[in-house]
Task: structure prediction
Amino acid sequence: MEPIRHLDALACPLAQANVDTDQLIPARFMKEPRSVGYGQFLLHDLRHDASGKPRGDFILEHPEARQASILVARRNFGAGSSREAAVYALVDFGFRCVIAPSFGDIFSSNAVNNGLLPATLPEEDIERLLEHLGDTPGRLHVDLETCRIRAGELDLAFTISPTWRTKLLNGWDDIDMTRQHEEAITRFAADYAARHPWLKASPGDPGVIARDF
Amino acid sequence: MTMPTTLFDKVWDAHEIHRSESGQSLLWIDRHFVHEGSFHAFNKLHERELPVARPDLTFGIADHYVPTLTRHLEEIGDAKVRGMIEQLSDNTTRHGIALFGLNDPRQGIVHVLGPEQGLTQPGLLMVCGDSHTSTHGAFGSIAFGIGASEVAHVLATQTLWQSRPKQMRLNVEGRLAPGITAKDIALTWIARLGADGARGHAIEYTGSAIRDLSMEARLTLCNLSIEGGARCGVIAPDEATFDYLRGRPYAPQGEALEQAMAYWRTLTSDPEARFDREVTLDASEIGPTVTWGVSPEDALPIDQAVPDPAREQDANRARQLQDTLDYMGLSAGQKLTDIAIQRVFIGSCTNARIEDLRAAAAVLKGRRSKVPGIVAPGSTQVKREAEAEGLDRIFLEAGLEWRESGCSMCVGMNGDLVASGERCASTTNRNFKGRQGPGARTHLMSPAMVAAAAVAGHLADIREL
Ligand code: SF4
Result:
């Protein structure tokens, strides 16, 4: 995973609350392999009208949106379905950071696992940032080392869990981290099984039965 | 003296392998469910050439993409949908994982199947790449949804890194009025606290109204924890839990069951245990509740009216409210019972267990639905049970379709969609824009309320039927 230290980049304002993962990527696109690039599906139904034509007035259709790597939104961003595809859509579109007053819990851990920074800013600060940006993409500076966002006159402090910050700063991957604990896991598993003997396949456990294909 | 602890702490601590300096816990996972959508995670595993650490603790379930008109793979017209089901079968076969596949008599929606097969038990730590995994907490287990990277991590290690969430006690005291269900409790608290009201928290549901709930109703309540932003919901196991589990295929039996029960009985919060937050609801004040907007927090008792943006102080909120009304095709101040519907859906992991189907059938018996609709049982076993009781006849005679089990119109991945602009009264869990199909308008409510809406042709008050 690519580490993030700071971003000096264009930010898109998305002045909406409750942008859930069903909106970030509608379910019908989730059959596609990642290799097709999920950016085209990002907020698909907000970006297009009923006939499938792009809505020119939607922020992601702005000519500069493709160069943006920061998204600013209102509260409860990424609520709902655990689909990591929502993060793939953001990342494949080009985003490295989403700034909002609050995030769905599963969304934020998915984000961090894909090198996308979920930066939490108090609601008042989000409003100031949105006001600063207006209706078009604008330049922001996001510094993960100091946890600050700067834009024009604004200099705002954001929060992120320290563990996630470290992970993002270093581009660490969980599976690698966990492997250092292999011995402890093996020991735990044996001890746990001894403490919970009823969890061994019970007499009634049908186990793996004939498959249908 | 030991510190008083919560049920949640007890289960969490029993699964903690290691705690990092920054406070993250490496947790042992007892049960891991994978479904068709888990293919991203399997791909990650294959990229790194890793095996599945514990195939015996991993269970594959075909539910999200399965057709509800057939159980034959070759009859699925959409090659991509068929491919999703085949892919799950390939991945589980390759790694020696048990599969509850399309035509398995035990097939069902993961969160219906788990409890039904006795896979869900008190004190376990359970995960699945699906946010409604919170459902399984109804048995006193910690169960939550995870993303694909985490699914890959669990597949590779049978463990997961998590930081301990804060804890909230949601206490519901008193008696529910007749016809009021777990769905109404859930929509009521979510409307009160907001769709992110319990964000970062594990909820323990307590109180006399919770104790009185059946296991099916507890599953519904815990299922909807995520819609209020909670990481998970738990209910302390009791005799109802043990009775439900007895004799289930994967539940311990005989002496093992005795051993298990001795442990399960310790899974309660100590009387002095401290919670980060306490919320109390009076059960008797909860009415039949429906959603009118595009977030589960947009819920009101059925005798109320659609909110008016003009009465909203905050300009942003007024704008968003107007946007919601535009999407939903509603006007400010319109009575909820005046909202005409074009379709109903009875199904999903929230409300498609046998008790839900019985509640809907009780309303529909001898009546006709004014609108078309689908009934998709939560599992193949629920379907058989309902047929044995003659519920299928009631639905069919009312003019609804009786389908095979699967997620179906809850998310529309299998092609069961609500048409654009159409309004659906639904027993599901999400009224998000486009959830049931592009442009679809969803109103969430209990199964009996959906049945009442079907009969009336508009949202209706179950108490007046
Ligand atoms: S029924 Fe709906 S909410 Fe439940 S698992 Fe299926 S898609 Fe998810």
User: Anything to note?
Assistant: The domain at 6-174 of chain A is CATH 3.20.19.10 (Aconitase; domain 4).
